[in-house]
């Protein structure tokens, strides 16, 4: 299923965040180069799957989430990787995921 078919917001577009929104936004890369077409998964603090999007051609992804501790995992034919992020409150929380 494509990102458009699953209701995920278009990746790589300008982002405006409401006063109470928590956004996890970042990029998937391999050796510093962006990785497009990666399946990017959001896992909650207990490791449970919460959501998935496909990274844009520039490797960008975004999730709207609740405050808390999250793991972002990227799966791609060139490799896999993950990163932890803590979203303490509203705003954009940056996360970079390197795949190898």
SSE pattern, N- to C-terminal: EEEEEEEE
Number of strands: 8
Beta-strand portion reads over 45%
- CATH fold naming: Immunoglobulin-like
Number of contiguous helices: 0
The assigned structural class equals: mainly beta
Helix content: under 10%
Give the terminus-to-terminus CA distance. 24 Å
**Contiguous runs where pLDDT drops below 50 for at least 5 residues:** 1-6
The radius of gyration computed from the alpha-carbon positions, rounded to a whole number of angstroms, is 13 Å
**Mean pLDDT across residues:** 89
CATH architectural arrangement: Sandwich
Domain count: the total is 1
The outline comes out as globular
CATH homologous superfamily label: Carboxypeptidase-like, regulatory domain
CATH class: Mainly Beta
How would a crystallographer describe the biggest sheet? 4 strands, mixed
Strand and helix map with partners:
Elements: E1 22-30, E2 33-34, E3 39-43, E4 49-54, E5 60-65, E6 68-76, E7 79-87, E8 91-98
Protein described:
It comes from Actinosynnema mirum (strain ATCC 29888 / DSM 43827 / JCM 3225 / NBRC 14064 / NCIMB 13271 / NRRL B-12336 / IMRU 3971 / 101). The protein has 100 residues and is mostly beta strands. The protein has one domain (22-98): Sandwich (Immunoglobulin-like), CATH 2.60.40. It is built from no helices and eight strands. The protein has strands spanning 22-30, 33-34, 39-43, 49-54, 60-65, 68-76, 79-87, 91-98. Strands 1, 2, 5 and 8 form a four-stranded mixed β-sheet that branches. Strands 4-3-6-7 form a four-stranded antiparallel β-sheet, with no helix packed on it. A hairpin with a 2-residue loop joins strand 6 (68-76) and strand 7.
């Amino acid at each position: 299923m494509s990102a458009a078919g699953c209701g995920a917001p278009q990746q790589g577009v300008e982002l405006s965040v409401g006063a109470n929104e928590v956004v996890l936004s970042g990029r998937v890369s391999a050796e510093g180069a962006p990785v497009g077409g990666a399946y990017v998964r959001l896992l909650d603090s207990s490791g449970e799957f919460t959501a998935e999007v496909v990274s844009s051609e520039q490797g960008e992804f975004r999730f709207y989430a609740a405050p808390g501790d999250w793991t972002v995992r990227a799966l791609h034919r060139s490799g896999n990787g993950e990163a932890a992020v803590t979203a303490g409150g509203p705003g954009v929380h940056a996360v970079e995921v390197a795949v190898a």
